[in-house]
Specification:
- Residues 113-172 form the Flagellar hook protein FlgE/F/G-like D1 domain.
- Keywords: Bacterial flagellum, Cell projection, Cilium, Flagellum.
- It comes from Virgibacillus halodenitrificans (Bacillus halodenitrificans).
- Helices cover 24% and strands 35% of the residues.
- It has 267 residues and is of the alpha+beta class.
- The protein has two domains: 2-83 and 227-266, no CATH class; 92-222, no CATH class.
């Protein structure tokens, strides 16, 4: 019976973690460039139950032969194995603001590949983002809303000297007679990236390989790819599954309490 406690409890924990991921998705439904998290549930290793016994052999000395009879498998519960972002391209929303940039995927060498803007975090390290909701700081540098510097192709901060600049669709920022290539990074497997918060990803990225097509839309933002209606439905499903496991756990608890009390009376 104790196995039932652990199985029901593991199911409740898994649904709670799935609920947390879905809640975070809904909270970021309006965050530009946000990629929805998807949880992957996996069962614990199954156990094979066998009945061990003995079989009498009709001999003079009454020998016994050990035998095993397979009863079946026992699943020991479920858990959230990992949380994987969904890197599907989000829809574009026109803002008309010159500092807003949307990175649109074109032809990529790998199905799991993806493109990102390159930025510099507060520690001076390179990070990657799909959130093109940029602005210009007091010193004239192109930065994110959180104050992270947007980098060019050589890893340098981009000086725009104001809001008056244009960005070509092939990723070049033009201002006051100079042309600066934006730092567009490519990874063939975006699932190796780790979310850091504020729309930043940590991982290993490379320059855009030959044969890759993309475009930059100035005055647009990439929407979050969260499907709010679907997420709400999944939240209700997770809540119902949590309740079901909770009722199973309560039933086991009542059975255990009844067994203990009746055994106590008999004694």
């Amino acid at each position: 019976m104790l196995r039932g406690f652990y199985t029901a409890a593991s199911g409740m924990i898994a649904q709670q973690r799935q609920q947390e991921a879905l809640s975070n998705n809904i909270a970021n439904a309006n965050t530009p460039g946000y990629k929805a998290d998807q949880t992957a549930l996996k069962s614990f290793p199954e156990l094979l139950i066998k009945q061990v016994g003995e079989m009498d052999i009709p001999t003079k000395h009454g020998h016994k032969l050990p035998v095993q009879k397979s009863i079946g498998s026992l699943n020991t519960g479920v858990y959230v194995q990992e949380t994987i972002p969904n890197y599907v391209q989000g829809d574009l929303r026109e803002t008309g603001v010159s500092t807003d940039l949307a990175l649109v995927n074109g032809t990529l060498p790998e199905e799991t590949g993806n493109l990102f803007f390159t930025v510099q975090n507060e520690s001076g390290e390179e990070r990657y983002t799909r959130n093109g909701n940029f602005t210009v700081d007091g010193q004239g540098y192109l930065v994110t809303k959180q104050g992270y510097y947007v980098l060019d192709q050589q890893g340098n901060q981009i000086q725009t000297n104001g809001m008056e600049f244009t960005v070509t669709q092939d990723g070049f920022l033009q201002t006051e007679g100079q042309t600066i290539p934006l730092g567009i990074a490519y990874t063939e497997n975006a699932n190796t990236f780790v979310k850091e918060g504020n729309g930043l990803y940590q991982g290993q990225a490379d320059p855009v390989p030959a044969g890759t097509s993309f475009k930059i839309e100035q005055g647009f933002l990439e929407r979050s790819n969260v499907d709010s209606l679907q997420s709400m439905t999944q939240m209700m499903e997770a809540y119902r599954m949590f309740e079901t496991n909770q009722r199973v756990l309560k039933a086991y608890d009542e059975s255990m309490g009844k067994a203990v009390s009746e055994i106590g009376r008999i004694g």
